[in-house]
Design brief:
The chain is mostly helical. It has 20 helices and no strands. The two termini are 14 Å apart.
């Protein structure tokens, strides 16, 4: 069994490239709240229309995610990541061409959706999960910290770029700058077991049928995977809805747009900390306890922002809690999926998890936008967030023991420190 230190010595460049690559696929989500104002003012679009792009991307990903996972299992992550990054650079830059046509707005989001499906989360998590066993929790945490970095950097960066160069050039700079760095690193360092076999033909890779894990039929019937999927879906609806509308929610509370953007960045910093701390904890203790408590705490975020409760201090606390816990949701889902499903068909199984992730991500902003357009405020959405996050935490807390694929034992009987 390889030690954690040996895993890091061999795989740290893989984690670095995966983290930067994955972060680039998050910038449209994390920057959308900042772009809403300029786009709405220039074209007179409603919040519902401005939020409609992510649901469109979600629907397309619902269809394509399982096929992307199957391709990762068969051909490897690198040959999905590189074309996906190139397509995403082009898609991000194409938002600079918007001329006020609603059909054009929808069409660009369709292009963005196909680009995102090629380089989906399955690509990055599959490569890292296959390279790490002892330190998988922290490795996944650092990989998925790319989204937290994007959350921390993109809002203030986008706000600055819009003020300095205009919103059109801001899209181009984000696409070419951020995406170019990601593509460069992945060309150099992003390789998985399929690529090692291509470079060393004398080494026979472990066939998928011999890797530890469930068959597709077994995974479909697994109670633990269903609980993980349901919890993740509801969390994505609520937290991505909040993320996209975070700046408008804060400005409606009396916070200026500039301060709201910096608060969003502060939440991203908390997310980075959350991923690192959670990665260490789930390598040592049962992930369902760590995840259940962390995700359940998100209930406080929605409560602290309600009318009659919020204060300037509670707003800051809410953003910090949200950043910390939201930074862990994909990490916990990915880690638990590797533990309950194993690696035998991880790409395919996580492709179906991605359906729930993208579906929730798409539905959340639309529901938040509809709540605002119908009621003139976000209170109904915040109340739903309180209830939903509490339920999601309980679903993770009550997961059954997961199999220990390393020893062949059917389940972990007690949380054990490493």
């Amino acid at each position: 069994m390889t030690s954690a230190a040996a895993e890091w010595k061999r795989g740290w460049t893989l984690v670095l490239s995966a983290s930067v690559g994955f972060s680039f696929f998050s910038i449209m989500t994390t920057s959308m709240g900042v772009f809403m104002g300029p786009l709405g003012e220039e074209f007179g679009w409603s919040r519902t229309l401005l939020s409609a792009g992510l649901p469109i991307a979600g629907v397309i990903n619902l269809v394509l995610a399982p096929f992307a996972g199957m391709l990762v299992d068969r051909y490897g992550a690198r040959w999905m990541a590189l074309p996906g990054l190139a397509a995403m650079i082009a898609a991000t830059c194409s938002f600079a061409l918007i001329d006020g046509s609603e059909a054009q707005w929808i069409g660009i989001w369709v292009f963005y959706a196909f680009s995102g499906a090629i380089g989906s989360m399955t690509v990055w998590s599959a490569a890292v999960s296959g390279a790490f066993e002892q330190a998988r929790g922290l490795a996944l945490g650092l990989t998925l910290a790319g989204t937290a970095v994007a959350q921390a950097v993109t809002p203030p960066l986008s706000s600055y770029l819009i003020e300095a160069f205009g919103w059109r050039m801001a899209y181009v700079i984000l696409g070419v700058g951020w995406g170019g760095v990601a593509l460069f690193l992945c060309v150099l360092f992003f390789f998985d077991r399929h690529d090692r076999q291509r470079r060393s033909p004398e080494t026979t890779p472990e066939p998928a049928a011999e890797l530890p894990g469930l068959t597709i039929a077994q995974a479909w019937r697994d109670r633990g995977l269903w609980q993980i999927g349901l919890s993740t879906f509801v969390l994505m609806v609520l937290t991505i809805g909040f993320l996209i509308h975070q700046v408008p929610i804060l400005t409606a509370s009396g916070v200026t747009a500039g301060v709201a953007a910096w608060l969003a960045g502060l939440g991203g910093v908390a997310g980075i900390i959350g991923k690192l701390v959670t990665g260490v904890l789930i390598d040592r203790y049962r992930a369902n306890w760590v995840g259940g408590i962390t995700l359940g705490a998100t209930t406080l975020v929605f409560a602290f922002l309600l009318d009659g409760i919020r204060t300037p201090a509670l707003i800051v606390v809410a953003i910090l809690i949200n950043g910390y816990s939201a930074g862990t949701k994909l990490q916990i889902c990915t880690y638990l999926t590797t533990r309950y499903a194993g690696l035998r068909n991880f790409g395919t199984v996580f492709g179906f998890m991605t359906i729930l992730i993208t579906g929730g991500s798409a539905l959340g902003p639309l529901l938040a936008g509809m709540a605002f357009d119908m009621t003139g405020g976000y209170t109904p959405f915040l109340i739903a967030g309180m209830i939903g996050c509490l339920v999601c935490g309980l679903l993770i807390l009550t997961l059954p023991p997961y199999p220990d694929w390393r020893t062949g034992q059917p389940a972990v009987r007690a949380p054990a420190a490493a």
